[in-house]
């Protein structure tokens, strides 16, 4: 029976995915140790906790960390490789839900829903005159996608169906892929920002993309543009974002992520009238959760069987994993 440590507790509806041949390890609530009981784990089903060398040292039998989601910025791949631990993710699991959240935020901001709701409440309760309705018709506007992977591509398809024009900046994708989607390729981020009515981020967080949206980048955006981020909070310099809002450069902002998470109680974004901020829940639907756990467990079982998993993030580790597996054979 394999010992798998689960960052989250999964209910009985997931028993079929986890299987009866698994000993579930979890941390008890209220202990102050988020990694309690991880010492015996052969695999980890990871969520949002950081996985660094100190954690890896606690679990000497650990063979695989399976991230239920796309992002893996909280897993130290270098140390995992050094310790002979395979790291995998589940990129297809949250695609649809996250793309839908980006589009939901886009439409909510474009129709100015936060301010309209507050104006209506004040008018009904306090008899305060309501200001003129201010909103954007999205059909015919230019959407600029920073990153055109699985999520960005689905956002592009829906936006095109809505009548928007779509362009993208992604140096890692071919022009052929963009042409198939009906998306215009833009070779520089500066050009995309300057020519887009809506800018939406869909890229991983790493040392090259941290604070990719800073004061300089926000100054390059069109006046009254909309900014959307459902990727990672670390992509955005929040002080620069607030400055762009306060000087009137941005029409509005839709965020499912911030930095840090959860946000500090005094974070001005929480109460800004032109901001919709949700608590990193884009992929938090039952269907997405089921798909992510299914993909994670399937890859964990592949590692246990000595089969290379399809979404291995540190491929250099695989020979070492095979050696560790062979050493465990009776």
Provide a quick synopsis of the model:
This protein has 330 residues and is of the alpha/beta class. It is 35% helix and 15% strand.
Verbal overview:
The protein is α/β, with parallel strands linked by helices. Helices cover 35% and strands 15% of the residues. Helix 4 (95-110) crosses helix 6 (150-161). The radius of gyration is 22 Å and the shape is globular.
Order of strands in the sheet with the most strands?
Answer: 8-7-6-9-10-11-12
Unreliable stretches:
none
Provide the structure class: alpha/beta
Distance between the termini: 15 Å
Tell how many strands the DSSP assignment holds. Answer: 12
**Over the alpha carbons, how many angstroms does the gyration radius reach?**
22 Å
Basic shape: globular
Question: What share of the residues lie within helices?
Answer: 25-40%
Q: How can the largest sheet be summarized?
A: 7 strands, parallel
Beta-strand proportion: 15-25%
Spell out the helices and strands N to C.
EHEEHEHEHHEHEHEHEHEHEEHH
Q: Please, how many helices?
A: 12
The residue-averaged pLDDT reads: 94
Looking at this protein, list some descriptive labels.
single chain; 330 residues; alpha/beta; five-stranded parallel beta sheet; 12 strands
Topology:
Layout: E1 2-6, H1 15-18, E2 22-25, E3 43-46, H2 53-58, E4 64-67, H3 77-82, E5 86-89, H4 95-110, H5 113-126, E6 142-146, H6 150-161, E7 165-169, H7 175-181, E8 184-185, H8 189-195, E9 198-201, H9 215-220, E10 225-229, H10 238-246, E11 250-255, E12 275-277, H11 286-304, H12 318-328
Parallel strand pairs: 1-2, 1-3, 3-4, 4-5, 6-7, 6-9, 7-8, 9-10, 10-11, 11-12
Helix pairs in contact: 4-6
């Amino acid at each position: 029976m394999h010992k798998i440590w689960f960052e989250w507790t999964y209910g009985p509806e997931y028993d079929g995915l986890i299987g009866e041949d698994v000993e579930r390890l979890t941390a008890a609530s209220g202990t102050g140790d988020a990694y309690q009981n991880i010492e015996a784990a052969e695999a980890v089903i990871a969520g949002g906790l950081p996985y660094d060398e100190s954690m890896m040292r606690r679990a000497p039998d650990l063979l695989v960390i399976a991230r239920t989601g796309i992002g893996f910025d909280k897993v130290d791949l270098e140390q995992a490789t050094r310790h002979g631990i395979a790291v995998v993710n589940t990129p297809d699991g949250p695609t649809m839900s996250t793309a839908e959240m980006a589009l939901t935020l886009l439409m909510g901001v474009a129709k100015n829903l936060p301010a309209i709701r507050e104006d209506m409440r004040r008018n009904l309760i306090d008899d305060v005159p309501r200001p003129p309705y201010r909103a954007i018709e999205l059909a015919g506007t230019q959407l600029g996608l920073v990153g055109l992977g699985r999520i960005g591509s689905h956002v592009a398809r829906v936006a095109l169906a809505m009548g928007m024009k779509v362009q993208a900046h992604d140096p890692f994708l071919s022009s052929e892929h963009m042409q198939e989607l009906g998306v215009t390729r833009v070779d520089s981020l500066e050009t995309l920002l300057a020519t887009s009515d809506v800018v939406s981020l869909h890229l991983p967080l790493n040392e090259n993309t941290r604070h990719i949206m800073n004061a300089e980048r926000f100054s390059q955006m069109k006046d009254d543009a909309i900014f959307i981020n459902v990727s990672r909070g670390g992509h955005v310099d929040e002080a620069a974002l607030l400055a762009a809002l306060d000087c009137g450069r941005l029409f509005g902002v839709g965020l499912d992520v911030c930095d840090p998470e959860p946000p500090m109680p005094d974070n001005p974004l929480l109460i800004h009238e032109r901001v919709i901020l949700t608590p990193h829940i884009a992929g938090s639907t039952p269907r997405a959760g089921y798909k992510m756990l299914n993909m994670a467990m399937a890859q964990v079982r592949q590692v246990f069987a000595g089969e290379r998993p399809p979404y291995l993030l540190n491929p250099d580790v695989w020979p070492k994993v095979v050696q560790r597996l062979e050493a465990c054979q009776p």
